[in-house]
Automatic annotation (TrEMBL):
<dbReference type="InterPro" id="IPR027417">
    <property type="entry name" value="P-loop_NTPase"/>
</dbReference>
<dbReference type="InterPro" id="IPR003593">
    <property type="entry name" value="AAA+_ATPase"/>
</dbReference>
<comment type="similarity">
    <text>Belongs to the ABC transporter superfamily.</text>
</comment>
<keyword id="KW-0547">Nucleotide-binding</keyword>
<keyword id="KW-0813">Transport</keyword>
<keyword id="KW-0067">ATP-binding</keyword>
<dbReference type="InterPro" id="IPR003439">
    <property type="entry name" value="ABC_transporter-like_ATP-bd"/>
</dbReference>
<dbReference type="GO" id="GO:0005524">
    <property type="term" value="F:ATP binding"/>
</dbReference>
<feature type="domain" description="ABC transporter">
    <location>
        <begin position="2"/>
        <end position="232"/>
    </location>
</feature>
<dbReference type="Pfam" id="PF00005">
    <property type="entry name" value="ABC_tran"/>
</dbReference>
<protein>
    <submittedName>
        <fullName>ABC transporter ATP-binding protein</fullName>
    </submittedName>
</protein>
Amino acid sequence: MIEIRNVTKAYGDVVALDGASMSVDEGATVGLVGTNGAGKTTLFRLLVGHATPDDGTVRVAGREPTEGPALRERVGFVPEDAAFDPRLTGREVLELHARLRGVPGDDRAERVERVLATVGLADAADRRVEGYSNGMTQRLAVGTALVRRPAVLLLDEPTAALDPRGVEALHRVVDRIRERTSTTIVVSSHVLDEVDRLCERVVVLDDGRVQARGSVADLATDAADAVEVRLRPVDGDARRAAHDAVRDAIADAPSDGAVESRGCTLVVECHRAVAFDVVAAARDAAALDGFEVEEPGLEDAFAAAVDDAAMVDDPAVATTNGGDRA
């Protein structure tokens, strides 16, 4: 559904995208994450047809940026700071956008009703927008993008100005879109927990380049070999016995590890390959109320991708490793 190949885009002396490549399958929900200035906004401008690449190719739903209106008919874009005429009702806003986007008149009313239900505004459809909360306004913005039934939906920092209840309501909207349609969704967000919650796949953009891409689980697994094992001994004596047993277990491991007491819990940092040995040693030595093993998460994957990119761009490191880039 989205194909970006070796795309470069510069604004004067500033290179916003530098040979970026990525692809997104139909119906996928993909998170786009990166530091400020990484190139996310420029990438969205290319996808929605507001800019064309200096070099490389961009295709969205079979269209190219040069096709302008034809491309925009296939792409729905929701900006971070959407705003509407406060005198209009939610229904009137959607009806206006349906007319502007060429929805046939005999289909318009039903289309608007379906969109109101999808974005959770059916009960507030006839209230003026001036009385909407930030969360309701953002869901209405999603609705304006949905009236044309886009093949691709781009959400730019969709929950940046929302409170926790508004965030959860918008997340439910995204869930409904995924369940009811084959729309391809790209979410640009600084909130890694949000990307983890909504997206099956992630693209990490840094300094105009795609530094990592893949499923959330695979990127997290590749990010670090270390895991955290939390053991809960039944009492103080058990905690001391488990501590000694775990200390000996990680001392014999091929990689570094550490164990510390945090209240009644023993926290062990170790290589994932010895996590089972750590738990087995503790259970052999002492009675436990339970244990958990925490794998690396998306935050670890993001940090690893950005840190690796910074090391490659460091002249001293480039000299040491021969200047190879991932």
